[in-house]
């Protein structure tokens, strides 16, 4: 009986060890830049490389289309890019401009910006992204395209999202330079994701893909 209980205890321990080991392996953090508890999952590697490039290239102006609505609580879902790159901007004397056409998203993001004490660094704008980008007069060191929600099953929405991201890039293209970094979210999805149309256009203009995964990270060939 004692041996039986011992074996049960060992089996339970090994089961727990396997369970938590598997969870640990799936946990993709940006520690030490962000607290270990935040799991960025499929965006971790592209975020990490982007943060490295931002520092190497001394980026000062960051433009994001599509705000992070739920703050850092959504790192596993939408990636919380506004707050990841906003934190980097705050620590490196840079500025981040985040534009979204959804009023509730802008309100929620603005509240969280204040909660994270990023209001002197991050500007959240309620506007159509194409109008905002077309009117933006400063040079852009990092462009993060993540607007027009994509749908896994609706091909009409997929095409509209893909066309929109191409139009966004073209609207701001004149403000980019050879050291600009471009990151496109939600690419590894059925139908090609948000980057399906804009990435080939960029490649024709001399941009090169550094990482092609759930997100696509690009820099200009002249900067390599």
From TrEMBL:
GO BP terms: namely:
methylation
Coiled-coil ranges from the UniProt annotation:
none
Looking up SUPFAM superfamilies in the UniProt record yields: S-adenosyl-L-methionine-dependent methyltransferases
Identify the InterPro entries for this entry. Answer: SAM-dependent_MTases_sf (IPR029063)
What are the transmembrane regions? Answer: 6-25
Q: Name one GO molecular function term.
A: methyltransferase activity
This chain belongs to which protein, by name? Methyltransferase domain-containing protein
Query: What are the top taxonomic ranks of the organism?
Result: Bacteria, Pseudomonadati, Bacteroidota, Flavobacteriia, Flavobacteriales
């Amino acid at each position: 009986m004692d041996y039986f209980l011992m074996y049960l205890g060992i089996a339970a321990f090994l089961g727990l060890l396997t369970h938590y080991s598997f969870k640990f392996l799936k946990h993709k953090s940006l520690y030490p830049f962000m607290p270990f508890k935040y799991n960025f999952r499929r965006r971790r590697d592209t975020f990490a490389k982007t943060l490295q490039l931002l520092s190497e290239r001394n980026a000062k102006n960051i433009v994001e289309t599509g705000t992070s609505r739920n703050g850092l609580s959504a790192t596993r879902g939408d990636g919380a890019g506004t707050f990841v790159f906003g934190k980097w901007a705050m620590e490196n004397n840079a500025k981040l401009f985040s534009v979204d056409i959804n009023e509730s998203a802008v309100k929620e993001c603005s509240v969280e910006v204040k909660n994270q004490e990023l209001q002197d660094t991050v500007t959240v704008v309620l506007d159509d992204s194409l109008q905002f980008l077309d009117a933006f007069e400063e040079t852009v060191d990092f462009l993060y395209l993540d607007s027009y929600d994509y749908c896994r099953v609706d091909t009409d929405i997929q095409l509209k999202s893909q066309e929109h991201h191409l139009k966004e890039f073209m609207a701001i293209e004149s403000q980019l330079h050879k050291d600009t970094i471009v990151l496109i979210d939600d690419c590894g999805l059925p139908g090609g994701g948000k980057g399906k149309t804009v990435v080939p256009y960029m490649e024709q203009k001399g941009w090169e893909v550094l990482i092609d995964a759930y997100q696509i990270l690009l820099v200009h060939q002249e900067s390599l």
